[in-house]
Amino acid sequence: MPKSQRLMPGPNAADSPEKVTSGTAEPLSDAQTIMAALKRTEQCVLTKIDSTVTAAAGELHTKIDNLSRDLRSEILNVRTEFAKVVEDVKKENATFVTRIEDLEEGANCYANRVVELEAKVTTLSSQVNRLVDKTI
Q: Which residues form a coiled coil (predicted)?
């Protein structure tokens, strides 16, 4: 393998391209060197992925917390506005109840007068009939 294509060994002694067996160092084959480099690269990539995922999770938690706080605030505002509207409706309803009670009282009064007038008309009608009978 040309020198420009060879992978550089890592800083750890375990990553060195030599195989230690029974006290003597044997050079690793190209395949073993590549496998060791792949193993280091895999660990490095996994570490970067882990840190990226951890950072993204932290950002998501922050965003969720902010959205939760905003939502709570908005719910509180809606509740406050709703309570004010309900209070206004209650006041208006009380006014309508009073007006309806006044109208019912007036209607009862007029109904009583109509009954009295009907009784008078009946009495007067019978008197008129008697007088007509006497004149004939």
A: 100-134
